[in-house]
Amino acid sequence: MAVAIIIVLVFATAMSGAIFKPGPWYETIKKPSWTPPNWVFPVVWTTLYVMIGVAGWLVWREAGLSFAMALWALQLILNAAWSALFFGLRRMDWAFVDAVALWLAVALFIVSAFPISVWAAILFLPYLVWATIAAVLNRAVWRLNDGSIPATASPGA
């Protein structure tokens, strides 16, 4: 039963990225030259979501409802919120705050999971690297665009 719940929670988080897509407005904003190509994002996130799910299951199996699992759930919430903030509301500033909070939740999960399951902690290391890249990219895009939304691409358009 726990595995099914974990799968549903991870899938629901992943759906945030499917609901709040970049869209044409994203193509109109300035991005740093080192922005990964669009095809990289679904490949990386699919891999990370599998690792997130396995890590959650490993910790749940060993510790059940615990501080580490609370952090695991928190990172899912922050993960889903980022897409809604950046792509849905087009608030690069709020998305950056969320990205920093996500980074902290992922890092704290690694530390809290390590004594419970070394593998769960290891599985989150690539996530921490990607969360770092995502936060730095978010900040760079926000800065390049002065936090503004192109006038021709208002939210909901």
In short:
This protein is an all-alpha fold.
Strand content: under 5%
Q: How many individual helices?
A: 6
User: Structural class of the helix and strand makeup?
Assistant: mainly alpha
- Helical content, roughly? over 70%
When the domains are counted, the total is 1
Radius of gyration of CA atoms, rounded to a whole number? 16 Å
Inertia-based shape: elongated
Order of helices and strands: HHHHHH
Contiguous uncertain segments of 5+ residues: none
Major sheet description? none
Q: Mean pLDDT across all residues, rounded?
A: 90
Number of strands: 0
Q: State the end-to-end distance.
A: 41 Å
Which key features would you list for this structure?
elongated, 76% helix, 157 residues, mainly alpha
Please explain how this structure is put together.
- The structure is a single chain.
- The protein is mainly α and 157 residues long.
- It has one domain (2-28, 42-144).
- Helices cover 76% and strands 0% of the residues.
- It is built from six helices and no strands.
- The chain has helices spanning 2-19, 23-28, 40-63, 67-88, 92-113, 118-144.
- α1 packs antiparallel against α3 (40-63), α1 (2-19) packs parallel to α4 (67-88) and α5 runs antiparallel to α6.
- The chain starts with a helix and ends in a 13-residue tail after the last helix.
- The model has no long low-confidence stretch (mean pLDDT 90).
